[in-house]
Design brief:
It is built from 2 helices and 4 strands. The protein is of the alpha+beta class. The chain has one domain. A 4-stranded antiparallel sheet has the order 1-2-3-4, with helices on one face. The longest helix is centred in the N-terminal third of the chain and has 50 residues. The protein is rod-shaped and about 105 Å long. The model has no long low-confidence stretch (mean pLDDT about 90). Bound molecules: calcium ion (2 copies). The site of one calcium ion has 8 residues, from loops. The site of one calcium ion (CA) has 8 residues, from loops.
């Protein structure tokens, strides 16, 4: 009798997994795969966002360089808030490879504020704001630039 029970246990182990064991294993595996998929989506979203931030930062730096090349008394550097026309702002607002084309409009909007005699006399502080919208939200990038009066221009 004892030998019969021992043989029966051996045979049960040799048969493999039961259907319930396979279902439990597949359920746990599926949950793991879903977690991996969510992680992948999050990663793609993060990459898209950082790519857009990089592009907008480059556009902002170009704007800063553009204003640095202007004369201190230029109308574009008059005190107040400036919102350049997208058709004439020196950037590719809609990422189509063309800059300032006719009718250009897009997800990137630039504006800047000029303050005279800030932080010290005979300087202008320019605060650039680059507002970018994209499929996953929106970002605002700000640059602060100080231009001294009488800085010789290199052209
Ligand atoms: Ca364009
Ligand atoms: Ca433009």
């Amino acid at each position: 009798m004892a030998r019969h029970i021992k043989d029966s246990k051996k045979q049960a182990n040799a048969d493999g997994f039961t259907l319930v064991e396979v279902l439990v294993a597949m359920t746990i595996f599926s949950i793991g795969i879903l977690g991996m998929a969510a992680l992948q989506i999050s990663s793609i979203r993060g990459n898209a966002t950082s790519s857009l931030i990089t592009l907008c930062t480059i556009m902002g730096e170009n704007r800063v360089e553009m204003l640095m090349g202007l004369d201190y008394a230029d109308a574009a550097l008059s005190p107040g808030t400036h919102q350049p026309d997208p058709e004439n702002d020196g950037i590719d607002n809609n990422f189509n490879g063309q800059m300032d084309e006719s009718g250009e409009d897009g997800p990137v909007i630039v504006s800047y504020v000029v303050e005279r005699d800030t932080p010290v006399r005979h300087t202008k502080t320019i605060t650039h704001t680059i507002f970018c919208t994209h499929a996953f939200g929106e970002r605002t990038i700000t640059f602060v630039q100080v231009i001294p009066k009488g800085l010789p221009k290199s052209r």
